[in-house]
Amino acid sequence: MKKVLIVGSGITSALTSYLLRQKLLTDLIHITIWDKARGPGGRMTTSRSNVVPNCKVDLGLQYITTTPDFLSNHTDIYQPLLDEKLLEPFTANIIGYKSRKKNVTHYVTPQGSSSIVKYFLNKSNIDEICYNTFLETMAKTDSTNQIEVTSKEGKKGIFDIVVLSMPAPQVTDLFNRSEMMHIALTGAAQVLLDVEYSSRYAFGMFFDKQFERPFDIKYFDDNEIIRYISFDNVKRNRPDEPISVCVHTTTQYYNSFLDSETPRNVIERELLDLIRKMFPSWPLPAETKLQTWKYSQVVDPHRDKLGFMQFSAKPLVICIGDSYVPQSNFDGCIHSAKQSVEVLLKGIQS
Fold first, then answer.
1. What's the average model confidence in pLDDT over 115-134?
2. Separation CA 91–CA 94 (nearest Å)
3. Mind telling me which InterPro entries this protein's record contains (predicted)?
4. Vertex 49: Cα angle to 46 and 50 (nearest 5)
5. Given this chain, do its domains 2-39+131-195+301-349 and 197-298 carry the same CATH topology?
6. If both were cysteines, with which of 81, 130, 131, 291 could 202 make a disulfide (CB 3.0 to 4.6 Å apart)?
7. CA dihedral sign, ordered 26, 29, 35, 41
8. Alpha-carbon gap, residue 154 to 149, rounded angstroms
9. Distance CA 95, CA 224 (A)
10. What pLDDT is stored for residue 182 in this prediction?
11. Measuring CA to CA, how many Å separate 78 from each of 82, 125, 185, 228, 241?
């Protein structure tokens, strides 16, 4: 039995483990997931209010945009989600949306975007999931072609295969902390540094009062701070749920705090004050949450765009995710998972 460690529990990790389980007998692999977060989702995170019942907001992925070609190629992924009603056609009105492609279809996640990640993880029969577990170091064992890993919290493990589903700069940081394959990774690490991301804050507001909304979703081109606002419950086709609002800031606004030590609550208060000035008729939210996205969408992916990046064959160590595909979206993550699984199958069966 091959022991596989997947680092990260976002959508690419969930799809990779799901597809592996579909192709291999359970007794051939033992899958472990480590994630530094408190729960699954990654950039498909859904935040739930602590004070307003049944009130939630997507602070990562907002909706899924796809094309007929991708829908056809990825039917095996889309159809179960549609059958389970985890995906529904997008019905909200958008102001200011500019599509680069023609003939696109939008879908929303009525239960929140993290529900998709949870669905595929549940279907994967993961042997062990460890949250609040930060991968600190990796090292090749002396006597076998295996990888020994340690977490910041003191957890250790030995695995035959390691799959890293994390932003490229964090992969570089991991290898800089480790003694594994430093010479061999010198060139590869530099290539990883070339991957570029956009950054932003996501600001969620939970309301315990109903009020008239001025729009469903709106993109702002002329605001230096605010890029996007959605009435999240309406966006998810759930207008009868308590009102929740998601605000995405501009990258420019995020970058203005890079060299400062401004407390999160100060940024949160500043955004709330700005929204109240823009929309003075809105009531005060019962609760707010601020999400920091240092690595949001990929702007410039890895140059090879293979869907993965392989660092070592024995032991097998690969990186997966939308950093290694042409498009930073849901279909890109599906493509990465499918390409990565082919490499993993060869490593498992060798």
1. 97
2. 9
3. FAD/NAD-bd_sf (IPR036188), RNLS (IPR040174)
4. 130
5. no
6. 291
7. negative
8. 10
9. 18
10. 53
11. 6, 20, 36, 26, 25
Per-domain residue ranges for the chain? 2-39+131-195+301-349, 197-298
Q: Are 231 and 244 a contacting pair, CB within 8 Å? A: yes
Three-state secondary structure readout of 158-170: EECEEEECCCHHH
- pLDDT, tens only, 6-65: 999 999 999 999 999 999 866 789 999 999 999 999 999 999 999 999 999 999 999 999
| pLDDT confidence of residue 180 | 59
- Greater confidence (313 vs 91) lies with 91
Q: What is the pLDDT of residues 76-122, one digit of tens each?
A: 999 999 999 999 999 999 999 887 777 899 999 999 999 999 999 99
- The CATH code belonging to domain 2-39+131-195+301-349 is 3.50.50.60
Q: Find where tokens 């239960």 sit.
A: 111
For 114-180, the DSSP string reads HHHHHHHHHTTT-SEEESS--EEEEEE-SSSS-EEEEETTS-EEEESEEEE-S-HHHHHHHHHHS-T
CATH class given for the domain over 197-298: alpha beta
Q: Residue 315 is encoded by which pair of tokens?
A: 């032991």
> pLDDT of 155-170, one tens digit each?
999 999 999 999 999 9
pLDDT at 314: 87
